[in-house]
Design the sequence.
């Protein structure tokens, strides 16, 4: 992935940070794994005046969505169960994209199968059969007519045209330069 304020893609391990006893996101750390940057660590802190949803808050928003919750409940019937995978927090430019796989597993055969992908960005949540379809539902886009899949479930949780409406993931302010090996506070 390409880290914010960086020119090229690289392999990194990301770790989001939330404060003790709170669920909002305050920072994320990237451990680099490429070439001469191997082992270096970058810490990106979010401004204290900005509310940035943490993984637990986004997970709660996903589970509270009526259509997504209903679909998961239907799959959690006798003989099968829905498994929500690890929620990924992916920095994109000055915002965050949250991606969560949804698996279906039969009781008789414990081999989970990817059935849906849930994507959250700003005040929108989408669930679709593939990551591509979920991203198209969030950001708009066209798909070939010959692809037949279940339609995406898209939930817009706010009016992005309303400038006064709170939108905690829009225009995240990152520091002017990443702080390498920054000490913890």
Sequence:
């Amino acid at each position: 992935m390409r880290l914010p304020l960086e020119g090229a893609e690289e392999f990194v391990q990301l770790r989001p940070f939330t404060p003790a006893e709170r669920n909002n996101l305050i920072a994320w750390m990237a451990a680099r794994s490429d070439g001469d940057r191997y082992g270096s660590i970058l810490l990106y802190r979010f401004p204290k005046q900005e509310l940035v949803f943490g993984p637990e808050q986004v997970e709660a928003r996903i589970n509270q969505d009526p259509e997504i919750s209903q679909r998961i409940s239907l799959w959690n019937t006798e003989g099968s169960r829905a498994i929500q995978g690890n929620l990924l927090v992916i920095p994109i430019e000055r915002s965050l994209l949250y991606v969560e796989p949804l698996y279906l597993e039969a009781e008789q055969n414990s081999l989970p199968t990817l059935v849906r992908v849930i994507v959250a960005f700003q005040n929108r949540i989408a669930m679709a059969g593939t990551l591509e379809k979920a991203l198209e539902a969030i950001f708009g886009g066209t798909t070939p007519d010959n692809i037949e899949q279940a339609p995406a479930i898209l939930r817009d949780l706010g009016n992005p045209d309303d400038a006064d409406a709170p939108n905690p993931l829009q225009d995240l302010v990152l520091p002017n330069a990443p702080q390498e090996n920054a000490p913890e506070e």
